[in-house]
């Protein structure tokens, strides 16, 4: 299947990722891929997990542990600045979810196929000529990491690739599903963090300037920085939509802000299915990947209701907590689908430009 998967990936790069990069920055408006060769080394599937609980009977959910290390050859250019760069190898490691739904009583038995990453995969790109690309006016603040984010986030929840296999399937409902719920994250405080700041060439240990990065899928929040404190108190609240469970996790990383490179202070991963079961978790969590430190979180699971019967009760509840979030706590969710447009006005200015 690999040659045909490569054809699909090339189409994905040209029709989805290329427009996304162009729209990310005005200076990238003439960005294009001039060559896309993914290579002959196929993607590997190192493990498959099938869910049998908390799953609709008309769907099959698979989590694939994928790994790709290939000698790819991808060339790109920005015509406006006569700038060219390329990619000579790509590595991708992550968990890709495959959903087969709806199951139907006729061949091919599956109505549609959806693909996406539950969280941003590890994506490493070996560039050639990246320095020339970043020397373009207006792109000097654009980093390798930002370019990777543009590419990877297009394949991370809530973004997904949905392929209909029969004509009768409601593709819009599969491509843009209603969220399963909302997790309200009270990012409260931490204790006993590592002191990363040093003085006198490392002889004297100091404190840290901690802040947190919170992720749910491609939803990312960053807390304020608490200066020179190993027991910081943030008392901030964030709300994230949860599109897939089981499988989605709350990811938190703590860092010490520095002028050059921020130091790592610990991480935490929480399965959101546990939050849904408990409805409310208020605990101290021990930080992973470091020798010490713990984090105090309060996590609430909010279920979406189809009617507004309890809206007054919800509004009363969040008014009592109105000081907990900078932009206020949510009481309802508005979902807007942009379906189509008709009879748009012709751009006469563009026509005059072309004719001239």
UniProtKB/TrEMBL annotation:
Topology within the bilayer: Peripheral membrane protein; Multi-pass membrane protein
Gene Ontology molecular functions: calcium ion binding; calcium-dependent phospholipid binding; phosphatidylcholine binding; phosphatidylethanolamine binding; phosphatidylinositol binding
Superkingdom of the organism of origin: Eukaryota
Ranges of residues in domain C2: 165-285
Keyword check for Endoplasmic reticulum: yes
Residue intervals of the SMP-LTD domain: 1-166
Location(s) in or outside the cell: Cell membrane; Endoplasmic reticulum membrane
Coiled-coil features, chain-numbered ranges: none
Family: Belongs to the extended synaptotagmin family.
InterPro entries: C2_dom, C2_domain_sf, Ext_Synaptotagmin_C2A, Extended_Synaptotagmin, SMP_LBD, Synaptotagmin_SMP
Any single GO BP term: endoplasmic reticulum-plasma membrane tethering
Pfam families xrefs: C2, SMP_LBD
SMART domains cross-referenced by the UniProt entry: C2
Keywords attached to this entry: Calcium, Cell membrane, Endoplasmic reticulum, Lipid transport, Lipid-binding, Membrane, Metal-binding, Repeat, Transmembrane, Transmembrane helix, Transport
One cellular component (GO) term of this entry: plasma membrane
Name of the protein in question: ESYT2 protein
Organism expressing this protein natively: Nyctibius grandis
């Amino acid at each position: 299947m690999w040659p045909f998967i490569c054809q699909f990936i090339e189409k994905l790069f040209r029709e989805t990722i290329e427009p996304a990069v162009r729209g990310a920055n005005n200076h990238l408006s003439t960005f294009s891929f001039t060559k896309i060769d993914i290579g002959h080394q196929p993607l590997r599937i190192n493990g498959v997990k099938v869910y049998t609980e908390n799953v609709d009977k008309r769907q099959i959910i698979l989590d694939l542990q994928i790994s790709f290390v290939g000698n790819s050859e991808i060339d790109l250019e920005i015509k406006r600045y006569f700038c060219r760069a390329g990619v000579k190898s790509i590595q991708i490691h992550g968990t890709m979810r495959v959903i087969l739904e709806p199951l139907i009583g006729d061949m091919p038995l599956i109505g549609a196929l959806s693909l996406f990453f539950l969280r941003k995969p590890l994506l490493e790109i070996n560039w050639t000529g990246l320095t020339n690309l970043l020397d373009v006016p207006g792109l000097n603040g654009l980093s390798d990491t930002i370019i990777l984010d543009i590419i990877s986030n297009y394949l991370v929840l809530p973004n997904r690739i949905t392929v209909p296999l029969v004509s009768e399937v409601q593709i819009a409902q599969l491509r843009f599903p209603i969220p399963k719920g909302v997790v309200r994250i009270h990012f409260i405080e931490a204790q006993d963090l590592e002191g990363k700041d040093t003085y006198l060439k490392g002889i004297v240990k100091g404190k840290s300037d901690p802040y947190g990065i919170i992720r749910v899928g491609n939803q990312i929040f960053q807390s304020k920085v608490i200066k020179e404190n190993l027991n910081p108190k943030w008392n901030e609240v964030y709300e994230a939509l949860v599109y897939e469970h089981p499988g989605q996790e709350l990811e938190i990383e703590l860092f010490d802000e520095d002028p050059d490179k921020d130091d790592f202070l610990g991480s935490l991963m929480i399965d959101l299915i546990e939050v849904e079961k408990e409805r409310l978790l208020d605990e101290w969590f021990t930080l992973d990947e470091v020798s010490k430190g713990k984090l105090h979180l309060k996590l609430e699971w909010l279920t979406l209701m189809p009617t507004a019967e309890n809206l007054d009760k919800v509004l009363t509840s969040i008014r009592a907590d109105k000081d907990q979030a900078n932009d206020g706590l949510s009481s309802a969710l508005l979902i807007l689908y942009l379906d189509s447009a008709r009879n748009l006005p012709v751009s006469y200015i563009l026509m005059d430009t072309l004719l001239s």
